[in-house]
Amino acid sequence: MKMKSIFCLSLFVVALSINTFATRTVEELSSQAASEDYSSAMTAIRELRTMGQVGLDALFVKYAADIDKFAKTGDATDEWKRIANALDTVAMQKDAYASRLYWYTNLDDAKRIAKQKNKPILTLRLLGNLNEEFSCANSRLFRALLYPNAEISRYLRDNYILHWQSVRPAPRITIDFGDGRKIERTITGNSIHYILDKDGEIVDAIPGLYSPVAFM
């Protein structure tokens, strides 16, 4: 009987802790996402990721001043690195602070949301991963010139569900200056944007590199 009581109490404590986590607000999760406690931060980030664009937008509200400061100064403090990690991991895109775009990495998930919102899908097929520094050269250009463009970012968020898929790793080269300095970079840039309908059928394809105006 005593063991049964202990077991029931344990179940109650577990249920209480689960319920407490489940009732955490998006604001609380946003605050926790940049915590110095890595485990707590990743737990909050995973929860925000499941919320889609809503979870990402909450981070932009919470850290608006920090994002503005980094955009102006480029000062990558330890705190900023934690904030940037939260943004990039929720968005699944490197330098998400500049683009504000949320990307699905599972096409079935993207199609499910596309059907719910009655929107087409823009899917990027690339070498490497969009959430890593060393994705292919084309995708790095997209991150620098296309996705941060205010008009493009707003249009994509309003009109498309976004998805990316890595085709294979991006080849890398290392440049050795002979004085102890080395630079590692990706060198190829094969990539293509496909426009899909909400059922995942290809409607159009946009291969290669474009200026922001041509891309729009």
Brief overview:
The chain is of the alpha/beta class and 216 residues long. The protein has helices at 2-22, 26-32, 38-50, 53-62, 64-73, 78-91, 96-99, 107-117, 137-146, 150-159, 212-215; strands at residues 103-104, 121-127, 161-168, 172-176, 182-186, 192-196, 202-207.
Would you give an account of this structure?
The chain has 216 residues and is α/β, with parallel strands linked by helices. It is 53% helix and 18% strand. The protein has helices at residues 2-22, 26-32, 38-50, 53-62, 64-73, 78-91, 96-99, 107-117, 137-146, 150-159, 212-215; strands at residues 103-104, 121-127, 161-168, 172-176, 182-186, 192-196, 202-207. A hairpin with a 5-residue loop joins strand 4 and strand 5 (182-186). The longest helix is centred in the N-terminal third of the chain and has 21 residues, at 2-22. The termini are far apart. Mean pLDDT is 88; it is low at 6-22.
